[in-house]
Every structure is written in structure tokens, then in C-alpha cells.
């Protein structure tokens, strides 16, 4: 008997319903998209992965992280305020 090829196949073979696996479908879709991007744009994918690892690994200076959080917080506040005023 062949082994299931994806996590969805493995869980489905264990009796779990498809409705109980939305997160697993998302992970599988992201995995497939990453594989596609690696095949289409290998150098760009490596550069993006390295940059994300650098930032997530706290390689950026503290002032840059603080500035990015401030900008993101202001953008989120402005978006929420515009939704509330247009409602």
C-alpha cells in the first residue's frame, strides 16, 4: 500500500473529515505556492527567505523595528477609524 502523499491524505485516511482541516488546507496551499515560487524564481525566493530570516532573527536594529511597529500601529488605527466612521 502506498503512503499518503500529503498531510490531508494522511488525516483523511485516519477518519478525520475534510471540514475539520481548514488550517491544514492553508498550510498545504502555502507549501505548494512556495514550491512554485522556488521553481519559477529561485534567486528571488532565496533572497526573500534570507531577508525574512534576518528580520525574524532580530538582525535589524532596534530603532528600525520600533519605527516599523509605530507605522503599522498607525496604519491599523487609521484603518479601524475609517471603518468605524463609514459604518
What does the model show?
The chain is flat, with a radius of gyration of 20 Å. With 87 residues, it is mostly helical. α2 crosses α3. It contains four helices and no strands. The longest helix has 25 residues, at 62-86. The termini are far apart. The model has no long low-confidence stretch (mean pLDDT 79).
Q: What keywords describe this structure?
A:
87 residues; mainly alpha; 76% helix
What structural category do the secondary elements indicate?
A: mainly alpha
- Can you summarize the main beta sheet? none
Global shape: flat
The share of residues in extended strands comes to under 5%
Cα end-to-end separation: 57 Å
SSE string: HHHH
Q: Share of helix among residues? A: over 70%
Overall average pLDDT: 79
Stretches where pLDDT is under 50 for at least 5 consecutive residues are: none
C-alpha-based Rg, rounded: 20 Å
Helical element count?
A: 4
Précis, in short:
The protein is mainly alpha-helical and 87 residues long. It is built from four helices and no strands. The protein has helices spanning 7-13, 22-40, 42-56, 62-86.
How are the elements arranged and paired?
Layout: H1 7-13, H2 22-40, H3 42-56, H4 62-86
Amino acid at each position: 500500500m502506498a503512503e499518503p502523499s500529503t498531510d490531508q491524505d494522511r488525516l483523511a485516511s485516519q477518519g478525520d473529515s475534510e471540514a475539520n482541516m481548514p488550517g491544514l488546507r492553508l498550510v498545504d496551499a502555502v507549501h505548494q505556492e512556495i514550491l512554485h515560487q522556488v521553481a519559477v524564481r529561485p534567486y528571488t525566493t532565496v533572497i526573500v527567505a534570507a531577508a525574512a530570516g534576518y528580520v525574524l532573527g532580530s538582525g535589524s536594529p532596534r530603532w528600525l523595528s520600533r519605527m516599523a511597529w509605530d507605522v503599522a500601529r498607525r496604519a491599523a488605527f487609521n484603518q479601524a477609524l475609517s471603518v468605524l466612521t463609514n459604518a
